[in-house]
Amino acid sequence: MDSITHIAVGACLGEAFLDRKLGRKALLWGALAQSAPDIDFLASFWMNTSSNLLAHRGFTHSFLFVALISVFLALLAERWHRPHNISFRKWLQFFGGVIFVHVFIDAFNNYGTGWFEPFSHKRISFNAIYVADPFFSIWPGIALVLLIALKQTSKQRKKWWTMGLVFSGAYLLYCLFNKAMIDRDVRQILKKQEINYTRYFTTPTALQNWLWYVVAGNDSGYYIGYRSVFDSKKQIDFEFFPRNDKLLDSVEDTEGLQKLKRFSQEFYTAEEWNDTLVFNDLRFGQITGWQNPKNKFVFHYFLKDSADNKLVVQRGRFEGWNRGAFRSLVKRIEGN
What we know:
Layout: H1 3-22, H2 25-35, H3 49-55, H4 63-80, H5 88-106, H6 134-149, H7 156-192, E1 199-204, E2 211-218, E3 221-228, E4 239-242, H8 255-264, E5 268-273, E6 276-286, E7 297-302, H9 323-333
Antiparallel strand pairs: 1-2, 2-3, 3-4, 5-6, 6-7
Helix pairs in contact: 1-2, 1-5, 1-6, 1-7, 2-5, 3-8, 4-5, 6-7
């Protein structure tokens, strides 16, 4: 999830765990602990882009890191707040729980998290919620604002942190329900439309959980389409994108390309844009693809030494968004 959501969730957890022991400082410790795995942003200062893509949500989002940083923060907090009546075990449970929630939630979107690093490079992605979903984030966000505003003695504090955590948790369960229904329908449709595939995934499109992006195919290429939870027709209008591996022959031996392939989990295509070779990671969707099924992909990496790819994950995310694109998204969500 985005950093602001993590901070709000962490503050609510801090209030839930330690409000009677630390007062408002519990909010700060919760926000800090929930943000700890994102320390991997520091890697961008010395790593090239392809290496940084793998470093992000890698080791710092592993179970081993959760254990190590929890012990470190527990020792730090225990010493910082002396004298106090909080046991080291309580500190450890607090930090372990809050940091685990971070790496657990992050696995629900499409970037992938390295839960088992450094022992396995397998990335965990449940593809159930968009990375920045306001319908998930609003509840802990409201709770955080009110927890800051309310007096420490207010009896309303428990009500608001409970609401922040329970409502966001309920929405996450709703997302999983939508995911299960979409996956069931997509498998039936792929079989009915006689589309052969060796790998596929579904993931929600931007900022909501009702319109889903569908990718299915194999080493020759991928069929891409969209399905709303409100669609009644058992049909998807797919667009086929060849993978074009031959285009990559000239750069096949480069370390950067191998890292991009690993990062994409084999969901990629190659294209030529004029004189520039482009690597597309399909997992991040298309730029307003529900409006134009032939649009380019959000993640497009220029395989050119002089190209600037630092914002490769972000630069296409909301490109082309305007009032018309938003209206078309709402209309497509309503179903066919």
